[in-house]
Specification:
CATH class: Mainly Beta
Strand order of the largest sheet: 5-6-3-4-10-9
Order of helices and strands: EEHEEEEHEEEEH
Bound molecules: FE2/S2 (inorganic) cluster
Radius of gyration: 15 Å
CATH topology: Hypothetical Protein Aq_1857, Chain: A
Helix content: 10-25%
CATH architecture: Sandwich
Structural class: mainly beta
Number of domains: 1
Number of strands: 10
Number of helices: 3
């Protein structure tokens, strides 16, 4: 499947974010519900399943600590601090019998959780799979 880069970050590390067509289409569809958005913000939140979990949300406004990527009429906003953790991240979107969801392929990750939404860059930093924690005896 063809990949196309969103943009090349104006940073020394030349970070790239790749967005598959299905992901771009779904992001545009979701952002229509937020007419005052300034684009898509990609964030990383701490995760119990690994070190970080991807968090996509409508961007309100870029801050001085952010890097922005303009692609067509879509602006991608990232905190500059997370650039090394997601360099060359590919975001895809797929639907199956369980529903639809974004898929993340991060070459910086040394470990991804079972569902693929969380990752670690530190070896042996994997956590407990949240999909099984609810079934596990405590
Ligand atoms: S976020 Fe818990 S298994 Fe993926």
């Amino acid at each position: 499947m063809a990949r196309f880069p969103l943009a090349i970050a104006p940073s020394p590390c030349a970070t790239m974010i790749h967005l598959r067509p299905a992901a771009a289409q779904e992001i545009q569809r979701l952002l229509q519900a937020f007419p005052r958005h300034a684009g898509l913000r990609i964030q990383l939140q701490p995760s119990d399943c690994a070190e970080w979990i991807y968090d996509l949300s409508p961007a309100q406004q870029a801050s001085p600590d952010d890097v922005t990527f303009q692609v067509g009429d879509l602006q991608i906003v990232l905190a500059q601090a997370i650039l090394p953790l997601i360099d060359n991240l590919t975001i895809d979107y797929a639907e199956d019998l369980m529903g639809g969801g974004f898929r993340f392929v991060n070459p910086q990750a040394s470990h991804a959780c079972g569902c693929g939404n969380a990752f670690s860059t530190t070896p042996n930093a994997g956590g407990e799979d949240c999909r099984t924690m609810a079934d596990s005896p405590r």
